[in-house]
Amino acid sequence: MAWNNWARKAAATLGSVALVTTLAACGGSGAGGGAGAGSGESTAPEDIQVGVAMPTETSERWIADGDAVKSQLEEAGYSVDLQFANDDIPTQQQQIDQMITKGADILVVASIDGTALSNQLQAAADQDIPIISYDRLINGTENVDFYVTFDNYNVGVQQATSLLTGLGLLDADGNKTDKKGPLNIELFAGSLDDNNAHFFWKGAIDTLQPYLDDKTLVVKSGQTKIEQAATLRWSQEEAQSRMEDLLTAHYAGGKTQLDGVLSPFDGISRGVITALSNAGYGKDIKAGLPVVSGQDAEIASVKLIDDGVQYSTIFKDTRKLASQAVDAVKAYAGGGEPTANDTESYNNGVKAVPSFLLESDIVIADNIQKLLVDSGYYTADEVKSGQSK
Asked: What residue stretch is flagged as signal peptide (predicted)?
């Protein structure tokens, strides 16, 4: 790691050759050194400005992420410039350019398109600004220093596992049941420009493949490739439109029953459920709504789960992810490097980015209280109303 720009300022102010030598030595410290590793010198938090770039405010999940990162950084004493880009790549590029111009010392970036920030990240690297990739891996550049995220392959496994459980093919303990197929399912994926979408998909398909191979599960549309199942920008509207098309083409009139839908995000799930409801599922079609998975534990979907409409979601506690991002900021501010628990899995096409992976949980109706209410993530009133305060 090159000298941090605040460290260079401190060295210049002190005019100490010994200090310069000490700070330069931090460039050789490995992952796992922790805050302050390798230098013995740190800058007061109030003297450090952190730019936080989030992709959108159209998803309550990203609002929660932004608020959690900002509040935890400010609580630790850092100055924070938080920006949301409304899913517009040029806007995010401009926002990061402005953060650099305004003197950001560290950047925390949740990208819209993981390949679209090369110029901005090069400008940051030229000024020795550490870049922490937040939840979505930034691809195609060496100028990303650390990655904080959840175990996204396992998230996909959990999505598929919850679908199998909801369909009755697995019991609550994950053991195979005696239920036989064939059961009809359709597959949805996230946005192809989001690296996480590919991890979710692989984890899910690896889990479902044995059931697809032996025809216990059947995808009537034949759309089993991620390119066919992808949902640009994770759009609820696009998911609804695609589900409507699938129903018209393969399940018209309810003559062929759709039993389940793999969905990688709660917004997509709600779009799918709207299309299903409009087509008569849960009303005129005797079998009711298909089993629909999800992700992010958005409050509107948590209510749907509580009401028995959506089957499941994956809870990724944004408070924990924010805390890990703050720990990474503290490490760089102390002249060291953050602790990584994975240095191989997340290759961005140029290098394997040191990462810290967090665990996630499957939420169904029976554990909403334990996972979401008792933990303080939502209140019981918020679950009941489907709106967060």
From this structure: 1-31
